[in-house]
C-alpha cells in the first residue's frame, strides 16, 4: 500500500513537470513570433541602387598630342604618381614609354645627317661646275681677243685669208654666247639642286625637332592644381602603370572639381520606367554611414547596356548631389534611394508580411483575437521595405511577419470580385 502511494506521488510529479515543460515551450514559441501593424500615412515608392561618386566636371591631363603625326599610335604608362595626390600646376604627373619614340628619333637623326651631307655635296658640286663654266668663258674671251688682233693684222693679206680670219672670230663669238647660255642653265640647275637638297634637309630637321618636342611631352605635368584621379578605360578599369595611351585619346588622368559631385548608378530595366529626370534622391555613403546627402536625378540614359557578368540590361543614371562636402572623393560607393512616387494617406505593410499562393494570389496572416486568418490582399506600389495594400486590410490590424504553426490548415479569406476589379483599376 505504501509502495502504491509512492508511485502515485511520482506519477503526479512527472505529470506536473511535463505540463510545465509544455507551457514553457508554448511560451517560447510565442516569443519567437514577430508581428507588425498595418499602417496608414505617407508612402514613398523608391528605386534603390548602389553607385559611384564622380566629379561633375574635371580637367583632363593630356598626353602627347602629336603621336599620330609621328606615326606612333599608342604607348604605355611607364610611371604615374599615386591616385588621390594633390598636385600644383607644373608638378610632375606621369612618364610614358619612349621605346618606339626612341627608334623613330634615331631614324630621323640618321635621315637628317644624310640630307645635311647631301646638301653640302650639292653646294660643292655646284661651285665646281660653275667655276669650270666660268673658266671656259674666260678662255673663250681671251681667244676672241687674240682672233680680233689677228684679224686686225691681216688687213693686207689676200681677201680669202682675211675672210677666214673673220670667220674664226665669228665662230669664237658664237661659241662664247653658247657658253654663256650653258652657264646660265647650269647655274639654274645648281640652284634647283641645292634648293631640293636644302628642302630635304630642313624637312628632316623639322621632323627631328618635332620628335624632340614630342619627347618632352612624354613627361607629363599638371596643367592646373587639384587632386589626381586616374582615367578609366572603356571597360571601366583605372589606367595605371602599363595601361595603353592611344594617339586618338591621349588622356592620362583627370583633375576633378570636388565642389560639385555626381553619383553614377545603373538601374535594372524592370525599374527604369519609374525613374525620371528631376526626381528626389536620398544618398548614403558606405565610407561614412552616418552622413546623409540628397540629390536630384540629372540624367537618364535612353539606351540600355549589358553589364559584365550580368544577363539583364541596365540603364545608366546620373544623380547630382546637392551638398558640397570636403570629405567626398571620386570612387566612393553610394547607396541611392530614388523617390519614384510619394503617395499620401495610403495603407501599407512590411514586405515580409506578404505571402503567395500560386501565381496570382497574395495574402497576409492576420491575428483575429487568439486565432489567425489568411487574408487575400491586392497590392500596389512597393519599395525595398514596404508595399501598399489597395484592398483587403485596414489600419491597425496586426500581422504575422513569421510563419506561425498550423498556417497551412487555416482557410484563405478571398477578396470579393468587385474588390479585385477596383484594385486593378487603381
Spell out the CATH superfamily of the largest domain: Efflux pump adaptor protein, beta barrel domain
The mean pLDDT is: 84
Instruction: Summarize the amount of helix as a percent range.
Output: 25-40%
Number of helices: 4
- In total, the number of strands is 24
The CATH class name of the largest domain reads Mainly Beta
Q: Work out the strand percent.
A: 25-35%
| Total discrete domains | 3
Name the features:
single chain, 426 residues, alpha+beta, Elongation Factor Tu (Ef-tu), domain 3, Helix Hairpins, 3 domains, six-stranded antiparallel barrel, four-stranded antiparallel β-sheet, 24 strands, rod-shaped, disordered C terminus
What are the SSEs and their pairings?
Layout: H1 2-32, E1 35-37, E2 39-55, E3 58-62, E4 74-80, E5 86-87, E6 92-96, H2 99-153, H3 159-217, E7 219-221, E8 226-227, E9 229-230, E10 244-246, E11 251-256, E12 261-268, E13 280-285, E14 292-300, E15 305-306, E16 313-321, E17 333-350, E18 355-357, E19 361-368, E20 371-376, E21 378-382, E22 386-391, E23 398-400, E24 412-413, H4 417-425
Parallel strand pairs: 20-24
Antiparallel strand pairs: 1-23, 2-12, 2-17, 3-11, 4-6, 4-10, 5-8, 6-7, 9-11, 12-16, 13-14, 13-17, 14-16, 15-16, 17-22, 18-19, 19-20, 21-22
Helix pairs in contact: 2-3
Brief characterization of the structure:
With 426 residues, this protein is of the alpha+beta class. It is 36% helix and 33% strand. It has 3 domains: 34-57 and 257-426, Beta Barrel (Elongation Factor Tu (Ef-tu), domain 3); 58-96 and 223-252, no CATH class; 101-217, Helix Hairpins (Orthogonal Bundle), CATH 1.10.287.
